[in-house]
């Protein structure tokens, strides 16, 4: 008798489409015939998680949702953002009452940004899902203005998918700092999370950082200073998920210097790129950590508009294994925008890193963070841009690159516009986005040819006379998934 099953290629395509919830761009093809062994398809389902924006009663938060137009995407689908059950920072139970009656925004079809807002300290974390045409490259930005108090200024974060492993160099438990790690669980089962802290002398003792339970469809803010009795100016936080998965982001707030979100660093690697240091930065601090057993020696370079230079007095940095290392680079950009490049001086040792960036001085200073990031890949997307408050930084560390940048239609109308730029090898360029429509718009960055490109977007805006800013790096927007090609059709089995 004949027994007919799905062909191997059909199974592969179906599985790739279904499991595209947290899909990513494929690596560059290597070797003869590599490009012919896989094809790319738009993801059919994705999820994003946004942390609770603030504990301040005077916080105002704007959300922007955008899905870029992706060739080959389906015609149906939908996207939604729903409130998570939020635990209060004092540990006295749920905050925000779970789901709100009205969502902060309703996402629009591809090519059109959607905006919404909320205010106060009871704004919950959000759990977002998108499928069909809404899924490929779906991006949500959360931007908060706080007029006064701890963390005052402009705070911004790109909502992220769930994962199981996160590194945050650049956190702190020093006096004057109030740093939380926000854990959000999108699934139907509880997640169990371990938090490890590493200071300048190595691991810190903690009796309460292991086995933190995050209930289903909820978010848990954990104050880092409650996890250790040893205050540390510079701290590396490792979040490891023992069971389930979560989204994790650190909210770093300073009594004197404002605050911002500190996203996770890119996975440990021998070479790192930290893009988008503003030209008027008054102080830059590098925090690095190597999770392995070997020390790392790194060459430090600044990619400027005219080429790569070595910061005087900071040519190299030595990172001891298991210990957090911090280096003050001062006003390293000296009036020109730049990106920091870290490469091994000898043998490559995996490292994670982030920058603490300060603009202004005294009572008018504000702080933002730049983690090491992955390259743009096929495409990256930045939501929540405005005509006067957005700066896009592009870096090509190892080769000339041609990049296409598209500004979407605005939230209040208009048409998309595209420009192409050439970034010379070893340089970092701040570019003016192409003219877009009215209101809030999105930017997509697509490399056309050449070497890898790294990107970051800076938002600026004054809050009670203080010039606030926030920086978001732009890795891949996870719009495509690689589907292997089958060499042989095994659809018919006989016996």
* Intertermini distance: 6 Å
Main beta sheet strand tally, sense and closure: 6 strands, mixed
Task: Tally the helices.
Answer: 1
* Form type: globular
Mean pLDDT, rounded to whole units?
A: 88
Oligomer: single chain
Order of strands across the main sheet = 7-6-17-13-19-20
Rg, Cα atoms, Å: 22 Å
Give a verbal description of the structure:
With 495 residues, this protein is mainly beta. The protein has one helix spanning 8-18; strands spanning 2-4, 38-42, 45-50, 59-66, 79-83, 85-87, 94-95, 114-119, 126-131, 139-146, 153-158, 165-171, 177-185, 191-199, 202-203, 212-214, 218-223, 235-243, 247-254, 258-262, 272-277, 281-289, 296-304, 307-309, 316-319, 325-330, 338-344, 352-359, 366-371, 380-385, 390-396, 401-407, 417-423, 427-431, 441-450, 454-463, 466-473, 480-484, 492-494. It has a 6-stranded mixed beta sheet with strand order 7-6-17-13-19-20, with no helix packed on it. The longest helix has 11 residues, at 8-18. It starts with a strand and ends with a strand. Mean pLDDT is 88; it is low at 1-35, 90-100 and 490-495.
SSE layout:
Layout (H helix, E strand, L loop, with lengths): L1 E3 L3 H11 L19 E5 L2 E6 L8 E8 L12 E5 L1 E3 L6 E2 L18 E6 L6 E6 L7 E8 L6 E6 L6 E7 L5 E9 L5 E9 L2 E2 L8 E3 L3 E6 L11 E9 L3 E8 L3 E5 L9 E6 L3 E9 L6 E9 L2 E3 L6 E4 L5 E6 L7 E7 L7 E8 L6 E6 L8 E6 L4 E7 L4 E7 L9 E7 L3 E5 L9 E10 L3 E10 L2 E8 L6 E5 L7 E3 L1
Parallel strand pairs: 6-17
Antiparallel strand pairs: 1-39, 2-38, 3-9, 4-8, 4-10, 5-9, 6-7, 10-11, 12-18, 13-17, 13-19, 14-15, 14-16, 14-18, 19-20, 21-27, 22-26, 22-28, 23-24, 23-25, 23-27, 28-29, 30-35, 31-34, 31-36, 32-33, 32-35, 36-37
């Amino acid at each position: 008798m004949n027994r007919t099953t799905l062909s191997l290629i059909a199974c592969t395509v179906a599985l790739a489409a279904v499991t595209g919830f947290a899909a990513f761009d494929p690596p560059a093809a290597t070797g003869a015939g590599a490009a012919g062994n896989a094809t790319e398809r738009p993801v059919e389902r994705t999820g994003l998680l946004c942390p609770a924006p603030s504990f301040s009663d005077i916080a105002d938060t704007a959300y922007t949702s955008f899905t870029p137009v992706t060739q080959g995407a389906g015609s149906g689908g939908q996207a939604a953002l729903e409130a998570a059950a939020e635990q209060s920072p004092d540990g006295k139970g749920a905050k925000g009452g779970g789901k709100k009656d009205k969502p902060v925004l309703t996402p629009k079809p591809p090519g059109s940004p959607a905006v919404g807002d909320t205010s106060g300290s009871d704004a919950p974390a959000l759990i977002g899902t998108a499928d069909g045409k809404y899924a490929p490259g779906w991006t949500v930005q959360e931007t908060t203005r706080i007029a006064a108090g701890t963390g005052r200024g402009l705070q911004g974060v790109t909502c992220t998918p769930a994962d199981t492993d996160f590194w945050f160099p650049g956190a702190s438990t020093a006096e004057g700092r109030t740093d939380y790690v926000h854990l959000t669980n999108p699934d139907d089962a509880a997640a169990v999370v371990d938090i490890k802290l590493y200071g300048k002398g190595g691991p810190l003792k903690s009796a309460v950082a292991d086995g933190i339970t995050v209930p289903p469809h909820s978010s848990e803010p954990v104050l880092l200073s409650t996890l250790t009795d040893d205050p540390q100016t510079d701290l590396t936080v490792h979040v490891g998920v023992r069971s389930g998965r979560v989204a994790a982001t650190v909210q770093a707030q300073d009594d004197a210097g404002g605050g911002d979100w500190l996203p996770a660093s890119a996975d440990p690697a021998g070479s790192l790129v930290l893009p988008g240091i503003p030209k008027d930065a008054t102080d830059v601090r590098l925090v690095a950590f190597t999770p392995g057993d070997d020390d790392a020696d790194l060459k430090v370079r600044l990619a400027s508009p005219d080429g790569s230079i070595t910061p005087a007095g900071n040519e190299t940095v030595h990172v001891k294994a298991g210990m957090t290392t911090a280096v003050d680079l001062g006003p390293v950009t000296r009036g020109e925008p730049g990106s920091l490049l870290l490469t091994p001086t000898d043998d490559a040792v995996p490292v994670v890193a982030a920058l603490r960036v300060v603009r202004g001085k005294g009572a008018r200073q504000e702080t933002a963070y730049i983690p090491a990031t992955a390259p743009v890949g096929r495409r990256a997307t930045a939501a929540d841009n405005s005509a006067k408050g957005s700066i896009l930084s592009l870096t090509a560390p190892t080769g000339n690159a041609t990049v296409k940048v598209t500004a979407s239609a605005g939230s209040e109308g208009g048409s998309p516009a595209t420009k192409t730029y050439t970034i010379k090898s070893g340089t970092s360029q701040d570019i003016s986005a192409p003219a877009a429509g009215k209101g809030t718009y999105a930017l997509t960055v697509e490399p056309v040819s050449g070497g890898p490109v790294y990107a970051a977007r800076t938002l600026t805006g004054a809050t009670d006379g203080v010039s606030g800013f926030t920086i978001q790096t732009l890795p891949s927007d996870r719009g495509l998934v690689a589907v292997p090609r089958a060499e042989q059709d095994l659809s018919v089995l006989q016996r």
